[in-house]
């Protein structure tokens, strides 16, 4: 019957799945020796070395009747390792944003700039970066607040309680209302991993508000 292969993450390339290090930063895809060192540091999914890991999963890509990826970036990464260039097929039928993002001019009262994040703030999604940024804002008394619509993946340190808040889990249908209630000045996507697509980015783009994101993975091409 055959099968189709749809790229969702990088499990076929790497047992760490997200192409991130033990410190939850992008690994840079260092080559076999670097990958083997990473596997020794934190064994994952029974992998012993990167060569045998990729040999074990290449059938899923090379043997597929069709291979698709949700972004050009994801397609190029799969092609680089398996010699198969996936057809780019975004997860959603998303029209072009009709207007350029417009930055808000803050009131003369210097109310805090509201930076809103969306989704699960896992380590590879930038949890440490956001906590560091909130800590810096506290120390420097910067007019910034960070609000996460989603799960912070652990307790928010008490030292940044006034600068960083979170709603907790939400249902997808609730997201437009939660965004409206948060009244963002801008959105931040601090992911340390090369995302293959990002559904939450779609929600942010629909608002036409400014977006700050890492120049990495699908963010780069989608925002361009």
Kindly describe this structure.
With 224 residues, the chain is an alpha/beta fold. 31% of the residues lie in helices and 14% in strands. The chain has seven helices and eight strands; from the N terminus they run βααβαββαββαβαβα. The longest helix is centred in the middle third of the chain and has 14 residues, at 127-140. The protein is globular, with a radius of gyration of 19 Å. The mean pLDDT is 93.
Number of strands: 8
Give, in order, the helices and strands: EHHEHEEHEEHEHEH
Report the principal-axis shape.
Answer: globular
User: Main sheet, how many strands, which sense, barrel?
Assistant: 5 strands, parallel
Give me the secondary-structure topology.
Elements: E1 4-6, H1 32-41, H2 50-62, E2 66-69, H3 72-82, E3 87-88, E4 113-118, H4 127-140, E5 144-149, E6 164-166, H5 175-182, E7 186-189, H6 199-205, E8 211-213, H7 218-223
What's the short version?
By secondary structure, the protein is an alpha/beta fold. It is built from 7 helices and 8 strands, in the order βααβαββαββαβαβα.
What attributes does this structure have?
alpha/beta; 5-stranded parallel sheet; 8 strands
